[in-house]
Amino acid sequence: MRTDGNDDRGLDQIESYLLWSAEVEEGRRQAARFTAHLPWLTTAQREEVERVYLADRLALSRATLHRIGDRAAELREEYGERYRHLRRRCVGTAVAGVGLALSALGATVFLTR
């Protein structure tokens, strides 16, 4: 089954949304675990600490994702260039091989006449 680019983009967006939602939920769980070790906090203080903890965690996650995305783009370009270079070399070698084979065949035909 063939899909168009819109389908792929839509699936990527859904996947991104689900992954980010899971990251937010994990941040909330960790914030609650952190404040559980601080029993002297009032409810308002606990909520504020959890809010700040979650905000810091999500900022770090966002920065990490951007760094990973940037590096992935760099690697995609780097390996794409390597692939193009290798493809040129392979095609050049194949063309040279065919040329040599045709030259040998021509020489053989010429010499056998």
Q: What can you tell me about this protein's structure?
A:
- This protein is mostly helical.
- Helices cover 90% and strands 0% of the residues.
- The protein is built from two helices and no strands.
- It has helices at 5-36, 43-112.
- It starts with a helix and ends with a helix.
Brief summary:
This protein has two helices and no strands. The protein is an all-alpha fold and about 110 residues long. Helix 1 (about 5-35) runs antiparallel to helix 2 (about 45-110).
Please tally the helical runs, counting DSSP H or I stretches of 4 or more residues: 2
Structural class: mainly alpha
Distance between the termini: 57 Å
The parts where pLDDT drops under 50 for at least 5 residues are: none
Gyration radius (Cα, Å) is 30 Å
* Strands, total number: 0
SSE pattern, N- to C-terminal? HH
Bulk shape? rod-shaped
Helix proportion:
over 70%
Largest sheet: none
* Residues in β-strands, percent: under 5%
Q: What oligomeric state best describes the polypeptide chains here? A: single chain
